[in-house]
Design goal:
The protein is an alpha+beta fold. It folds into two domains: 148 residues, Outer membrane lipoprotein wza domain like (Outer membrane lipoprotein wza fold like), CATH 3.10.560; 65 residues, wza like domain (wza like fold), CATH 3.30.1950.10. It has six helices and ten strands; from the N terminus they run αββββαβββαββαβαα. Strand 1 and strand 2 form a beta hairpin. The N terminus is likely disordered.
């Protein structure tokens, strides 16, 4: 079991040294070290402005429905959840081609509904938490009251949906990062990330995600991760 005070020396040392590849963490091409290049994925409840330059009377501000979709005049439901603004722009333009020739569309984020993450598994207070800023999986676990006696802080899973639509997961060894700052290569979290502290050694990571983590997610998160790749 680790404590918050142990985090401070690790962060100080980590800021002074160049992190080395960690043998305790699966290689992830999808990691964003500073979070600045992370694509924003829309979610249910987000409010967006759809501007149709070629037919201004169709322009409007809409809220993404709980099923992850929204409607425009003369279109069916358009999928927006777990998509970037550029992807929704493309999907909307395609949906309007039945009524407009070469529709010129822009999509802007008006208001984000939530900046929540889910921390579950063997932590003292599992549940939803608002992102207080740029934090990592260790800080998220501390926000949830730390690892219980039954938990494994050397096998913490991060699950994330990427802009391409695929869901990725990786295992972090938080204990190793505390004991050795060179191994503290924790990635910054994004909204709708899932941090899950396991209770036993994982033999099959994908199977564990399917059987334990997905079933434990709250409704909004479950919808976000279950949305398919269809654009309509």
């Amino acid at each position: 079991m680790f404590r918050f005070l142990l985090l401070l020396p690790a962060l100080v040392l980590g800021a002074c040294e160049t992190p080395q590849p960690s043998p305790y963490m699966e290689t992830m091409d999808w990691r964003h070290e500073d979070g600045l290049d992370a694509s924003y994925l829309l979610a249910p409840g987000d409010e967006i402005e759809v501007v149709v330059h070629s037919a201004p009377e169709l322009s409007r501000t809409v809220t993404i429905n709980p099923d992850g979709r929204f409607r425009m005049p003369f279109t069916g439901p358009i999928l927006a959840a777990a998509r970037t603004l550029e992807q929704v722009k493309s999907n909307t333009s395609q949906a309007l081609t039945s009524e407009l020739r070469d529709p010129d569309v822009d999509v802007f984020l008006v208001e984000a509904s939530s900046q929540q993450i889910f921390v579950g598994g063997a932590v003292e207070n599992p549940g939803l938490f608002e992102l207080p800023g740029l934090i990592d999986p260790l800080q998220a676990v501390i926000m949830a009251g730390d690892v219980t006696d039954a938990g494994r802080d050397d096998q913490v899973i991060l699950m994330r949906r990427l802009p391409g639509g695929q869901v990725q997961s990786a295992i972090f060894d938080l204990k190793a990062g505390i004991n050795n700052a060179e191994l503290a290569t924790w990635t910054p979290l994004r909204r709708f990330d899932v941090v899950y502290v396991t209770r036993k050694r994982i033999a099959d990571q994908n199977l564990f995600v399917q059987q334990f983590i997905r079933n434990a997610l709250p409704v909004d998160f479950s919808i976000f991760y279950d949305i398919g790749g269809d654009s309509r």
